Amino acid sequence: MSRPSWEQYFMDIACLVARRSTCRRRQVGAIVVRDKRILATGYNGAPTGLPHCLDIGCLREELGIASGERHELCRGLHAEQNVIIQAAYHGVCIKDATLYCTNLPCSICSKMLINAGILSIKYKEGYADPMAEDMLTAARVALTQTSEAIK
Predict the structure, then answer these.
(1) SS3 for 108-134, per residue?
(2) Sorting pLDDT into bands at 50, 70 and 90, what band is 150?
């Protein structure tokens, strides 16, 4: 039996969190970690108490909106937004933490993560938003693409 590295362990958990997503187009999971402790989790989906896109359909699909564009035309929150909100809701500071995410955050989430004090982001897959990577790099947020997850 092979024991996973910390990076693989946390990325596997982010992938598991993504399975809770209610988005019809992309399942994304995120966790915030500091000192090898999980501080908060988040996945993409509708706000609490509102109907999910899985149940009522996807406006972005209906309008043919490409990934990475017109984020405001979506009833869901991104996983990264939800992980920040969950931490704030429970009074957990995420400053100087690492985000493990199944996807590179978009530019909107990147701005939020920078202001929340996230020091590094480890992600599994890219995202069609080049401004995000530019801003994260300019803010000196360490970015690492990793394949360290169960396939």
Answers:
(1) HHHHHHHHHCCCEEEEEECCCCHHHHH
(2) low
